[in-house]
Design goal:
By secondary structure, the protein is an all-alpha fold. The protein has 14 helices and no strands. The longest helix has 26 residues, at about 45-70.
Length: about 290
Amino acid sequence: MQNASPRPAYPAPSAVLELLKPITWFPPMWAFACGVVSSGVPILANWYIALAGILLAGPLVCAMSQAINDWYDRDVDAINEPQRPIPSGRIPGKWGLYIAGIWSVLSLLVAATLGFWVFVATVVGLVLAWAYSAPPLRLKRNGWLGNAACGFSYESLAWITGAAAMLGGALPSSQILVLALLYGAGAHGIMTLNDFKAIKGDREMGINSLPVLLGPDRAAMVACAIMVVPQVIVIVLLLAWARPIEACIVVALLCGQILMMRRLLRDPVKEAYWYSGFGVPLYVLGMMASAVAV
């Protein structure tokens, strides 16, 4: 009988890339782009700032949050998804934790070049990312708090950071701040959709996601309501700001989401992934329409 191959001392680049989950970088990068557009500053005149900010939002801050989350979720992932880099041993030892620390430092260094408010927003985002995954707070143990932290970091902070970067590090306008906060609040529901795939492991490990706390059906209804209400407020605000065309675009996108929510609510455990692929893109298109409006 052959001996099992020893685990590597260092992670392979492919395993590190898988740990950082590039597919998850899109939401904060898109929100950052919404901030860039909403600032009103010509992109071509400051393309290098926009590029550095997109790097900060996705491959740095978001990637760091994925690494730290996988490190502190390694016992849950051993149940739900044992093929992931850390439980499978492809990220050996404490390298998951080391990578999260290295990426945190890199994020701060890049943020420091983009102005005061960008640096502040990055610090807040990093603190929330660690608080979400790491003890003693480990906000993800509570679906209400954890999803709020994710939505605020991925959407609100990224949007505000994008606007602040283009404005030379200045604080964005109240209209930009309100839109960013509303879409960040709605993202709480989007985060809940991600929890349906891990109900078994979350229940065993004492992680009280909304599907665990409320049951799948009630959690899906709450998630839908949380996604809808902020968009309704956005529509009202756009009309008040004399932006009827953009308001109508958001109305049309919201109607599409509501139609798809009917399928989601029939079987949320089965359809949450489907809705994430088809309903959530309409939500993020509404973000850009709102960014253009201001």
